[in-house]
Prior knowledge:
The chain crosses the membrane at residues 12-30, 42-66, 73-91, 103-123, 144-163, 169-191. Belongs to the YciB family. The protein has helices at residues 9-30, 44-67, 72-91, 95-117, 122-127, 135-162, 165-185, 188-194; strands spanning 34-37, 40-43. Helix 3 (72-91) packs antiparallel against helix 4 (95-117). The chain is built from 8 helices and 2 strands; from the N terminus they run αββααααααα. Strand 1 and strand 2 (40-43) form a beta hairpin. The protein has a two-stranded antiparallel ribbon with strand order 1-2. It is mainly alpha-helical. Helices cover 75% and strands 4% of the residues.
Amino acid sequence: MSEAREINPMLRAGLEYGPVLAFLVAYLWLKDNTYTFGGTEYDGFIVVTAMFVPLLVLSTGALWALTGKLSRMQVATVVLVVIFGGLSVWLNDDRFFKMKPTLIYVLFGGLLAVGLLRGQSYLKYVMEEMMPLRDEGWMLLTKRLMFFFFGLALANELIWRFFSTDTWVYFKTFGLTAAIFVFFMAQGKLFEAYGEKKDQS
Length: 201
């Protein structure tokens, strides 16, 4: 396996978050329009989804080419975006794309749950280099993150089913990102209590 390569943090952020911001901008621009392709009418949301899918694939491919590494979460996200974004465009039905975050978070929460049932923290395998913790800390953080993912899945279901598409787009663009940031910021005491200090020698 080739080693991961470091790239400019701004470039990484652009490749990771650029497609999502582009989706928001394009949606706000095209949401009230209807377009006809091949005799079929598509609303702005479907057209933006059709543009977002290849953009995400290209940006993720560029990130992989530049760094030599992708996380399992990134790979799973791209696969589900292609499947459910493609279904939304093909069937001209935005519900498939809106369900995608639900399935992503159920998948991640389910994987963490399987690890916990086996007495393991799968989160540790992914994030150990970023956050050195004792085993008890990893198990506790994994349990909290599992419930958090299931909570996000439930929130996404409630919002796309009972609120407007505008509300769902803002929730997906800003709400989910902010929720994940707040979750990890709230784990400060856990990191202090279970963190492993690196040798200074």
